[in-house]
Amino acid sequence: GQEGKMFPRKSAASYTDSSDDETSPRDKQQKNSKGSSDFCVKNIKQAEFGRREIEIAEQEMPALMALRKRAQGEKPLAGAKIVGCTHITAQTAVLMETLGALGAQCRWAACNIYSTLNEVAAALAESGFPVFAWKGESEDDFWWCIDRCVNVEGWQPNMILDDGGDLTHWIYKKYPNMFKKIKGIVEESVTGVHRLYQLSKAGKLCVPAMNVNDSVTKQKFDNLYCCRESILDGLKRTTDMMFGGKQVVVCGYGEVGKGCCAALKAMGSIVYVTEIDPICALQACMDGFRLVKLNEVIRQVDIVITCTGNKNVVTREHLDRMKNSCIVCNMGHSNTEIDVASLRTPELTWERVRSQVDHVIWPDGKRIVLLAEGRLLNLSCSTVPTFVLSITATTQALALIELYNAPEGRYKQDVYLLPKKMDEYVASLHLPTFDAHLTELTDEQAKYLGLNKNGPFKPNYYRCCSSSSFLLPRAWGTRAGRVEGTGFNPTGPLRRYQGVSG
Amino acid sequence: GQEGKMFPRKSAASYTDSSDDETSPRDKQQKNSKGSSDFCVKNIKQAEFGRREIEIAEQEMPALMALRKRAQGEKPLAGAKIVGCTHITAQTAVLMETLGALGAQCRWAACNIYSTLNEVAAALAESGFPVFAWKGESEDDFWWCIDRCVNVEGWQPNMILDDGGDLTHWIYKKYPNMFKKIKGIVEESVTGVHRLYQLSKAGKLCVPAMNVNDSVTKQKFDNLYCCRESILDGLKRTTDMMFGGKQVVVCGYGEVGKGCCAALKAMGSIVYVTEIDPICALQACMDGFRLVKLNEVIRQVDIVITCTGNKNVVTREHLDRMKNSCIVCNMGHSNTEIDVASLRTPELTWERVRSQVDHVIWPDGKRIVLLAEGRLLNLSCSTVPTFVLSITATTQALALIELYNAPEGRYKQDVYLLPKKMDEYVASLHLPTFDAHLTELTDEQAKYLGLNKNGPFKPNYYRCCSSSSFLLPRAWGTRAGRVEGTGFNPTGPLRRYQGVSG
Amino acid sequence: GQEGKMFPRKSAASYTDSSDDETSPRDKQQKNSKGSSDFCVKNIKQAEFGRREIEIAEQEMPALMALRKRAQGEKPLAGAKIVGCTHITAQTAVLMETLGALGAQCRWAACNIYSTLNEVAAALAESGFPVFAWKGESEDDFWWCIDRCVNVEGWQPNMILDDGGDLTHWIYKKYPNMFKKIKGIVEESVTGVHRLYQLSKAGKLCVPAMNVNDSVTKQKFDNLYCCRESILDGLKRTTDMMFGGKQVVVCGYGEVGKGCCAALKAMGSIVYVTEIDPICALQACMDGFRLVKLNEVIRQVDIVITCTGNKNVVTREHLDRMKNSCIVCNMGHSNTEIDVASLRTPELTWERVRSQVDHVIWPDGKRIVLLAEGRLLNLSCSTVPTFVLSITATTQALALIELYNAPEGRYKQDVYLLPKKMDEYVASLHLPTFDAHLTELTDEQAKYLGLNKNGPFKPNYYRCCSSSSFLLPRAWGTRAGRVEGTGFNPTGPLRRYQGVSG
Amino acid sequence: GQEGKMFPRKSAASYTDSSDDETSPRDKQQKNSKGSSDFCVKNIKQAEFGRREIEIAEQEMPALMALRKRAQGEKPLAGAKIVGCTHITAQTAVLMETLGALGAQCRWAACNIYSTLNEVAAALAESGFPVFAWKGESEDDFWWCIDRCVNVEGWQPNMILDDGGDLTHWIYKKYPNMFKKIKGIVEESVTGVHRLYQLSKAGKLCVPAMNVNDSVTKQKFDNLYCCRESILDGLKRTTDMMFGGKQVVVCGYGEVGKGCCAALKAMGSIVYVTEIDPICALQACMDGFRLVKLNEVIRQVDIVITCTGNKNVVTREHLDRMKNSCIVCNMGHSNTEIDVASLRTPELTWERVRSQVDHVIWPDGKRIVLLAEGRLLNLSCSTVPTFVLSITATTQALALIELYNAPEGRYKQDVYLLPKKMDEYVASLHLPTFDAHLTELTDEQAKYLGLNKNGPFKPNYYRCCSSSSFLLPRAWGTRAGRVEGTGFNPTGPLRRYQGVSG
């Protein structure tokens, strides 16, 4: 349910951003220390700052570093020419440099006009990556940057890594012939995946695409585990409130809702849940939450949190009935869940009390505390831990490897889920972080269970609770093949980590 | 993973079982108060005791009682002739009398030679159900009882409700022609479902079959929620141990393992987990459990619990290394997980200290405490709450209704999962127990989400965490149709419960 | 708040109790294998069964076993002649045999006419302890047994270990001169301690007395940790109910209430709390419980639990308003909390459905489920873990040692709490069970904190949360001296356990 | 253990602080709108900003607002002339204006040269309070401000409210005669209380003093409940780390340690505990934490947190052995717990990566992450919720009322704890925030328990877990009288809140 977690970490480092340099990067002449000018960033001189942030990120992205080590022997992306369009952050930089180490050539643009960390972009440009991105691009800049990535003499991409589908869209529109050489698309976002399914349905998808948004591991981390922490972080940073004893209603008991409820319950809040699906509702009951309709508790709660993916879950009528000082925020999807537009009426006064915090004041003096204007709290008001981004980035890297190396015919012109074995592999690459020791099946046990000792341990259509209550999955899984026969054997490095104990 | 939860509740009522009546029921002439003798039970005079147990069970099975109420208007099982073979307990009796109220005729045998509650069987016989079952049947008695259910003049079943597949097997073997009139089979157990899939694979399944074992609701309750409570209950009743501060290793982090770990952690135990699947392993890490190999902790733990579904997870070598007084038990599957056979060697002394509790004593005096001889702890040493059995029984009733009313052609000669909507309906029927109020979608919201307001809210292939680590699901879901067009509209009573609040 | 935890463990072993031997033990001529007949038990031949139970208990009472080991060198109770009056169970036997190993002579009677385990009494008699106790004594038997302990030719007690004050009372009444030689009284129960404070207040206490009921360690275990587990156990064994989703109100948020609330919340119940003390009430809020008056929730809850120590907390009016099937039980104090007497009216029908479980049925058919007739649930319907009893028994043993060895003048004719250092020592003796490694202060740190490296680490008047909401402590602590100068150095064995790690 | 929580909330409002106005406030001529110039603040024109912050704080300080309402009838501080020296924040302003509403005249200085919020000081000055404080005072300024509060013609204080003892010290030193008219001192901090006990011991304390630091309610909130939240907040804001799966060692299991452990366990961390006190150690075991020595786990943990109050708990030797990226922080006391000085050696490189975050880098590249240079994490890197400050401020107000109204002779020249009944009253004033409904004793119950229906419900020496492992309480409680006879009846407003329900 949580889209676009690859949002930039708000760096606390003392960036030199506040320069009074107002010249557009497009009008500047810049060269990196090796003399290349095949990039366009804010200020190449910020490279050193960016490099430090990348180095810090590397320490928390062990899986990509493990892939790099392995790549000293083989280069599964040798010959790959990847064009990418994602948020440009320290974590993306670690991904890009890993793809480079695996043999790929990369060209990169930003998928969001605000999210680029200029220092990181500079560091990438300095080390030779053609990067076209800066913070505060205009819409025209945005498309210009994308175009500079693909429209190059003597270089044509054969792989696409996209986040939101804009890059894919641009190539479809401007350079449809390019798809003849493209082996596949890897897409990260809900929106981008949706676009791909529509293309597929319309029979217009002309290369295989991998939906990495719906891998089990990524979903669990983006939704349950990450939100369990970011709900507390987001509320604390914006309001300094105390959780103990507070009455909270959480709308929706999918993965995001489950994470929010568990965290707040643990901190001593009293949590109510609303649901439309009786199965999720029964789970809420068994987990110890009163299942109510929003109307029943709206007058008494201190906090309202939406995690449904639905629209207008909190209406003006609800807002009118809330008690003074009630906090309202959205952890769900987009900005549709709270009917914020209904609050833009003359009788209500808006007061911006802090960044991301508005007091909306009723004529009688009652005020409600609206966070992030109803947009996603966790993206607006808290940070996404590098570890979560590491899982996303590793999944992207493996999807690129799989599509690039797949034998002819394994993937058709359709949208695929990451094969189960690959998903398990991503998980296994992150276990060493926790000094976690996986048990290996004996031959006898593998035979008893009818499993391969190296996995996959679950069938392709197994998705562990990954459907939050609003994400309607598509017809997946039936086509995704196994990993056999890939030159790149994913179980190698995994096993290396397992010899530690008993 | 947990098979056969429909095991009899150990009644604490003062049954008159210990009579010295050694005559076989088959040799007795018994009549109920209406003069019928179409049954065979231990002692028809025990009916009154059994009736009280049934009445108590009724209070905790609200969903079936709701179906009965609804049946005052329509009889969706009118004309159905159901032959059943299940454990015969107070909860089964509530199911049978519900099927009767819905219009069905029933004949019933026991699926297990020990599990029949004689008083309940007597009560059913007294109220006119042809029941053939008693506690302590011989194998010959077992098949004789089944045969008495199906081999009747002037009555031929058109529906089968089976638990384990023995009834289905008997009809296949003895009366294959009977299948011509049979509209479908509803099967409850893992074993029975396995047999059906094999038949299907071999092209020998000649009627549709419904696998109710793998419905989301049933799985969640049988595995996660029920085991979360029964692990504590089973350990306490057998050993009176204190949980606080104890070191425990739980083998397997599927649903059963998750339930065991959560409960013990909450009681102050220190819990370690072993896993083979990296995705489940990563979940264990994020839930705060050290992931280890069994060897690493075997010397230090106070309790070893298996929940893998695998075999020989605890070997003689492990048992040799455990510390004095270590408790060993199995929550997983069958009796294969602990290699109990390896303990039957001359140098070890077995001492039965309580029912279901053995001390196995090493030559040096070390003793380990083996519970239930390695069989399922929760079935052997704790009780299954009526509420869990209610979910199973309701699922069975709805599956019978669905198969019996399905229009020609909806179901082929294959094995089906319960349609998602039915699964949701079972859940919704149990919400009133918790005074839980479901939210209804507005028209606008339903349109936005692309959902029918009455569900299903998730696709058929959605299974929420239901795969414990060992249960390998089959190729399901692709064939299961929707419920539209059934005469029996399952959303009626559900909605009635929802008007309570705001 | 929890009185008298030293209740016998309900042994599951196959005792030979059900003999039809109706002869009073007082009329029997019995001799143990060494020819002694200075005892009076049910049947000396049951000694072997009792010995096995004692051996099992020894394994879970490591602290007493550690004291025994230590006693191989010195005998701090050499010369002590202890007369005791407690429940006679396997755990008491371990205590008695430990006192013997420490040099004491003992004579023992039971403090309760029902609680004696005959086999254990036989085992003690067989190994030479003059024990006078059996299950099912008459009141006359009860006092006869006590008298046989103290009224002996050529033997006069110099220490008293009492549980309830009956033994002390008997000596005061019958043999007041005996107090001239008595060095002190150790009393375990709330009632007995209350009697001693009254004696003290009246100026009639003629020897020092040690109140071991109020030691921090004992209180924490008897109340918080033990009740956290026994509330679940007691409810499950009596009702087989499922905890998940149930609404529960807990009356009283002292230590017992805190334990009950924590356990039920962890199992998925929704818990409400009532309190009279605003400080405890605020704690309940911060721990995530709705603080209500009983009236507010009485119609909706599934379970009512009292832990207040107060009287008539649940009145007939409350009982009249409960919903059908509501469970009512008492974890608090005595049997006053629920007004059970008010249910003994003609219009209500009582139905005993299981041992300790009554259905009380209203004219309209509503039934409430009353457990243990309002007496303490945890004593009536669950077992007390040996580990908890071990803490009590160790505290008693150390109190005897302290009083017996105290230099002239340290203790006056007053009631004392166990010195803090002794309390800490009891705790430290139980740490090895958990393989727990205590950190030792460096000299520099001890100096910085102004503490002795061996403790006490808290002042004498420090009581960690030990006051449950109803137990009004007395004027303690101001007189209790330190342990310096005792021949028996309690820090010895403690430190021995601490060298294990770093 | 946590000293000085009254630290200023870091306001996120857009203060106009960054003015380039470098003139010292002492050199400015300022008047408020009523023409008064009896104050000295940074800039009186900032009053409006400050007023808004005060109004927001008022909404979260219901207890003080309740006192104000009550004061419309009676003025328990009529005639009181209070001189105060505390942090000057929005919450302090609410306290000061409450004291004013209760009838007192106040003059105020800051207890810390950095902590004054200039806008709040301006708002207070604007509304007529003689305030002498600004952010960034020199030491000379500091004492000058204090002197301006006390050294006034025609006005002499009769009450002191101090935080740290500097104000008290100044009066002792400069104006000892002033004490003749002073009725009492209320002191908030550990340090200030310590100084008072020393004065008392030396026989130099010439007025009664009230130690409000050690009230049960304040302690519980400052330590357990506040730290449970601030440990997560502090770690997240500084490092953006993910808690799930992390290994953490918490040194010390007093109230602060208990709060940290509970929070991190709930977020999925694996927590180890070190302790010196066997009773706290046993609690850690029962709460499910492995009790270790620091050495045993120092190589494997991801986070080290100190909460002991001791010194050099984390030594250079420990720091040398930590793994790369290990985070080290202090939640305990002062800055002694981590031996930060030992890290100031030439071979180690310090790198400031963010505010309050240093990387200390070993020659081999290993870096540890040191937060707040070993000072208190929760004060340096997170905010203190207004609700916690509300409890402190209410306690201070009631202590002033009690001392000011106490009849002659109730308090001697000594240090007193807040009477139990007052402490309960503070708690009760905060219950309405949680819509919490206290139960009232019936006459019969009060008689049974031997309690007054209005409390106190616990004896004066009852302190619920308030002793964290390092805070050694003083000789309290024996002298503190009851509240009877005060003109101001504290139970009035409390009871008013209780009529809401049943």
TrEMBL record, chains A, B, C, D:
SMART domains: AdoHcyase (SM00996), AdoHcyase_NAD (SM00997). InterPro entries: Adenosylhomocyst_ase-like_sf, Adenosylhomocysteinase-like, Ado_hCys_hydrolase_NAD-bd, NAD(P)-bd_dom_sf, S-Ado-L-homoCys_hydrolase_CS. SUPFAM superfamilies: Formate/glycerate dehydrogenase catalytic domain-like, NAD(P)-binding Rossmann-fold domains. Keywords: Hydrolase, NAD, One-carbon metabolism. Substrate binds at residues 89, 163, 188, 218, 222. Its EC number is 3.13.2.1. GO terms for biological process: one-carbon metabolic process; S-adenosylmethionine cycle. Residues 223-384 form the S-adenosyl-L-homocysteine hydrolase NAD binding domain. Binds 1 NAD(+) per subunit. It is an enzyme of class 3 (hydrolase). NAD(+) binds at residues 254-259, 275, 378. Transmembrane segments: none annotated. CDD domains: SAHH. This is Adenosylhomocysteinase.
